[in-house]
Amino acid sequence: MKKISLVIGGKRYTITLEEPFADAVEKELTELFDPGKDNETKILLQAFLSKQIECLEQEKYLNELLEKLTIHTDT
User: What is the pLDDT of residues 3-33, one digit of tens each?
Assistant: First the structure.
């Protein structure tokens, strides 16, 4: 287990995650936030929306890939 802390809007948030998931989350958070300072709530919202867009794009890509695979196995 690993604890990761982040300050947003003047409040410190600490989450506990299991390895190796914790390392991946910590890397992502470090790219989006400055862990050593108070981050604005706006940055959290922007990061969330950015990740949502990324997930939607990955879902679209996977669905297209599945469709191609299905077409090739039917022939």
Answer: 999 899 999 999 999 999 999 999 988 888 8
Distance from C-alpha of 11 to C-alpha of 31, rounded to nearest angstrom:
19
Domain edges within the chain? 2-74
CA distance 21 to 19: 5
Q: pTM for the whole thing? A: 0.68
List phi, psi (to 5°) of 20: -85, 0
Q: What burial class does residue 8 get, using C-beta atoms within 10 Å of its C-beta: 0-12 exposed, 13-18 middle, 19+ buried?
A: middle
Tokens representing residue 36 in the block:
């050593």
